[in-house]
Amino acid sequence: MRQKAFPVHEELIFGSGLTMIAGALDAYSYLEHGAVFAGLQTGNLILLGINFGHLQLAQMGRYLTALLAFALGTALARLLQHFLAQRKTSPQSVALWVEFAILIVALATTNVIPDWAATALLSLAAAVELQEFRRIKGAPFTPLMMTGNLRTATESLVDGLRYHDREARGKAIDTFAVLGSFIVGAVLVAAFSHLLAGYAILVPILLVAALIFWLYQQSHRRQWKH
User: Fold this and answer.
1) How confident is the model over 20-61, as pLDDT tens digits?
2) 216 Cβ contact list (under 8 Å, min separation 6)
């Protein structure tokens, strides 16, 4: 049976790359910038509540900054989506270039700006990614938050094994691949954090660059076929 063709940015390899970037960003911001998550705002809300409960009010600012920066990044990305809606420019390509530019600024200002400002930049980048990329193979998907993906993978695995649902088994394999990619992103940052002496942000930067190249190559390849 011929497999259904999906847009390039909904392919499994592309979605896995996005989750790898997300895992790398969260690991980098947590390890290098005061135990704050760039994209995992649920974690930041929990840490905000814990610090408030311990009356460590001075520590709360870093989490509030990340939350506000993520909200701002989402708003700006949404406005950009509306702006590009009537144009021929690929919104997915633009989103990746915006994320890449923000990360380059974060790289250039490493060890120059305070942790809260660095985390704000990383949260902006994570928000742009989440706002633009929310489907994989036609199904809802989030590259930043793995709780929903873990639930989907487990549900699909049960349906696939217990009820012999071939489509569910395929979905389980795809979703576990996404989960694994998130872990790989975090592992890469942790592994290179000492070697790169605070410049482990190069890991997500190189991953974004790779996705930009892959998206461009695959898009043009499909155009030539048609």
Assistant:
1) 999 999 999 999 999 999 999 999 999 999 999 998 888 899
2) 93
